[in-house]
Amino acid sequence: MTAPAVSAVRPPAAGSGVLRAVVSKVVTAVVVLFFVATAAFFLVRLSGDPVKLILPPDATGQQEATLRASLGLDRPLLTQYLDYLGGLPRLQLGNSLVYDQPVAEVLFSRVPATLELAGSALVIALLLAIPAGTFAALRRGRAGDTGVMTGVLIGQSTPAFWVGILLVLVFAVQWQVLPASGYGGPAHLVLPAVTLAVYSVAVIARLLRSSLIDVLGSDFIRTARAKGLGTGGIVLAHGMRNAALPVVTVVGLEVGTLLGGAILTEQVFSWPGLGRLTVEAIQNRDFPLVQAAVLFFAATFVVVNLLVDLSYTLLDPRVRVTS
Amino acid sequence: MAGPSPLSRRTALRLGGLALPALALPGALTACGTATGSSGRVLRVAQTADPKTLDPQRQGDLMSMNVLVNMFDTLTTRDTGNRLAPGLALSWSAPDPRTWRFRLRPGVRFHNGERCDARAVAFSVNRLLDPATKSPIVELRYVREAVAVDELTVDLKCSQPDPIIPAKVSLFGGVAVPPGYLQQVGSAGFAKHPVGTGPFTFGEFQRDHRLRMRANPAYWGGKPDYDELVFLPMPDPSSALAALQSDEVDIVAGLTPDAALQIQGYRGVEIKHYPGIRTFYLSLDTTAGPLRDVRVRQALNHAVDVPLLIKAVLDGKAREVPTMFPRESFGFDPAITPYPRDVGLAKRLLADAGFPDGFDTTLTAQTADANVAEAISGLLAKAGVRARVELVDTGTYSSRLTSANRGALGPIYLGASTGWTLDAESLVQSNVRHDRRQSRWHNAEADRLVDAEEQSLAPADRQRAFTGLQHLLKQEAPFVFLYQIDNIYAVDTRPQWQPGVVGVLAMAGAKVRS
Fold this sequence. Notes:
heterodimer; A: 323 residues; B: alpha+beta; eleven-stranded mixed sheet; 15 helices
């Protein structure tokens, strides 16, 4: 029997062990975030001078110095760094140099649009990938499998911006059934969400297929068949549950990718999400906003990974009892 | 190991049931989504980004100006012939060399009903000058303070003579903001819900999504022809053009020639290009290497075939310039002609200067100008000058441009200037006089001419200085003079509108078909 991919996972302990594991993961997460915050602070300062971008090129040196002082960028780097670290626990991330608004306000105003896009993309990805992966696994080696996997491979190898432009040309320009870009009603969500989902469909479907093929070849499935259970019952009741563990890991990582990797999709569809905000902040050398965005993405990855780890205990009873 | 079983009909139905919502979702969403067609008398304009802020004194970039020019007025403005015209000020004069006096238009009110009088205008200018405002507007560098003389008269007091203050206050240096409202809501509140005197009032703003303005029925210049003006930020030109084709926007602004080519020939969509004032040039570091020799600099000017460049790379959407000045700027002298393009002459000049086999150098440009830079590099190569193109992003470029190290952008870089004031002073203020930050040229006569045009109030004296300067620039060639690029728009059939040469999207004069 091939064991489900539990061994790749470090299981949390039962009872107080679970609590200890959670606390340890939270501490690790805080340390990770501290290093991310520090790296973001110093790296963004290596990338250029925001004052030079805010002012036109014909500004005088004195005008530059005045603006630099009023933005607080003339203070010693260490002072700026300590101020920044001191503000983090209270979520005081400073004011955006460009938008002149509190960074937290600017950042969190974009979260709903990003969640909407990433959430829809994930739902679409799962709705397409689960049937596709299952179908391919059940038809392993036959024309259906080859067909589905070829389609999936094409999806995985196609860049998002190209898929996006293609969808726009067909659905918005030729058929005019969906808006080409923008943010508003559910119709605006369709093309960006599908574009963003394409890559994830491929990743999830391929993994589900191989995982399910493994599981369907195991002894307990043979026993189930011997008991007279139909294929559908076997797949849904036994196969899926056992094939789910690696898939959940990947889906968790995909959530992070979808949240942070929507930059191109947001650019193509003029979607007012975090990705686009981050790109603009980097282009503008908007230090506080870049720092906050980097931290936000890092925190999202950390939290999602933590949740994925904890979800194993629900999916696989063996994880709960191991330690 | 058991092989996979054939899929039973029931399983297929179950899996189909799982897949169905995914396939049906787009259709269902379409049914409940908003239609993309235009509604009523609305004009929708797409540009590449949103305004950085809605506080007109905290911005200085084109995207912000494009929006704010529709909600705010300035002391002076430009008429359709690009001449300086009354705005909030009806007339202006210089009672002494260091004072500019503006007589204001009576009866103007802000959108909240507050009076726009001399007190409000003086408050506005003083707010701009206050370092606490952190304004990136730098034109009023010689203005010390603004003083309300009486209810409708404002004086701008300067630390030294500044002949083009009336032109400078046609930009956001001359914007009026409401003092009472600012006191009430503060700067942050003002930037969230701006109140001006302009032809449109603020509606709503969702950053990176949409900014709506409503026509101001009480506007002193008359209510606009339509009811609502919407700005949509679309960073990707292909998407913006697709939105135009699918009737989601009426005007796509700020197109590059190659982006415009994508849409040429589509039904119901037209590419329009109008003369613009953004002027491109190659800055040459005359303080080091082969470029110290004037013959080498002249050779480069002969080698770069600008008409060919305009035709081949810019799709004809630019005009050659003899020196740094666009035709529409005060100071331009039509008697001065561009360099003849002659590769043979360029080679001879290089040989005379001791470079019969040319030389190796670097041409730095922003990534957005990669096509032009590569083409120029190719043209230079014909004369034997092997210029390796180095591309840098905008942030790096800006940092190096005004760096203390004047060679930070290398021996040759592709630069561009937009003289918003329509006065040649703006084109040479930073890069000609030897002590200015971007200057890489030491020439006492040029310094003298710059001083003359910057400090004289008499237009004839200034024109003489500019003419002299253009002759000198052409002769000494501290730059390779290139072209002034057109402003390019894609429009559908609804709007009738023509921009001024400055290219700011002042949309109050547009007409919109229902």
